[in-house]
Amino acid sequence: MARQKTLYSCTECGWSTTKWVGQCRGCQAWSTLEENLPQATGQVQSLAPATPAQPISQIDGQATKRRSTGVPELDRVLGGGYVPGAVVLLTGEPGVGKSTLLLEVSAKAAAASRRDGLSPVLYVTGEESASQVRLRAERINALDDSLLLATETDVSAVLGQVESTNPSLLIVDSVQTMTSSEVDGSAGGVAQVRAVAAALIAMAKRRNLPVILVGHVTKDGSIAGPRNLEHLVDVVCHFEGDRHARLRLLRSIKNRYGATDEVGCFEMGDFGIHGVDDPSGLFLSDTASDVSGTCVTVTVEGQRPMPTQVQALVAASGGGSPRRTTAGVDHSRVAMTLAVLQARAGFDLSSQDVYVSTVGGAKTTEPAVDAAVALALVSAATGRPPKAGLVAIGEVGLTGELRSTTAIGRRLAEAHRLGFNHAIVPRQGWDAAAKPAGMKVTAVDHIRQAIAAGLAPAS
């Protein structure tokens, strides 16, 4: 009988090999290979099912009816609220406002539970003391008698708290600070995070209890811990934003119960974090419209169109190598747009410093902003401001053509609502029926036509 070989599998990505190596060849992680002993092969005995299979039409759907979190922007990202028994993983960089957001969510959910006669909300913290959490709750006005606070770092103690309080919502801050006595290793390690997450997920499914876990991120922005943590949970949300700016964006990366193309907007203030129902004005400057080097476009974040102003500055280079500095836009696409302007439109900026930025800390990478970036660059180089009330939408190709983009109708409707009365769009894929009433739309084929139609005549 042939001897079975021992396999070593990576705990991060699942890559396996017959020899132990220090670095995984699949994900390049170090010290993540664990030995998997050979399993005996043979016929598996069948067992009687615990519950018989039922037609899907006869399954009770009321048991998983969504409940609102009390924060409309979070409900938007989750698809209408949290589902009983679902496990949500909220990640983000340190200081972005994860704990503040969840403390506000827990207070509003506790008030709703008390009003509806439901069980209280349990908030478990493993990073701060109870008095420290109480101090933040007073600052953001998140005190409620139906909000229970516990300080635990052992997952067994957390399960005991759940058994004794029977909460309607459980929040754990954070999963990397919890440990399991059944697994060796320090808190935050691969084995500990996997064991803690598995215990909490099993409890959530068994009790039909919604659970929100806070997760840390590494230096490169990925979720700390084993990669299969994202596969175990039902929803993964990422909270992002510059700590020096007030704007925060909540994106859904994975959602088993809804779409993953929704974005929630929040504003961080001195008294907590609050949702922004209409964030359009946050990305527009208050400067006069006759200033050169600016252009407005409309980006789509999920299903939400948001006007964004692009600003450009072209200055004489002080050295042999001109600078190319960007903020909020894709650096490679700006470099490509500069090359297209030089080769296809006759605007040579290769010997000058170029700076391109967005207003309000907005970040966008979609190709639809290419037209606005090109107009802002030409406006800054020539001193010709854009025409009043202008927005530019479209992707610029390497041949200089303006390519079509998605959701032009919704983009123009949002721009018209904010007072913009002139738009430049690609002729390819343009439907005149999508034009808002009272708005002038110029459909062009090439970036040269967009420059001629979008910038004021030279003085």
From TrEMBL:
SUPFAM superfamilies: P-loop containing nucleoside triphosphate hydrolases, Ribosomal protein S5 domain 2-like. GO terms for cellular component: cytosol. Residues 63-217 form the RecA family profile domain. Keywords: ATP-binding, DNA damage, DNA repair, DNA-binding, Hydrolase, Metal-binding, Nucleotide-binding, Stress response, Zinc, Zinc-finger. A motif (RadA KNRFG motif) lies at residues 254-258. The middle region has homology to RecA with ATPase motifs including the RadA KNRFG motif, while the C-terminus is homologous to Lon protease. This is DNA repair protein RadA. The lineage of its organism: Bacteria, Bacillati, Actinomycetota, Actinomycetes, Actinomycetales.
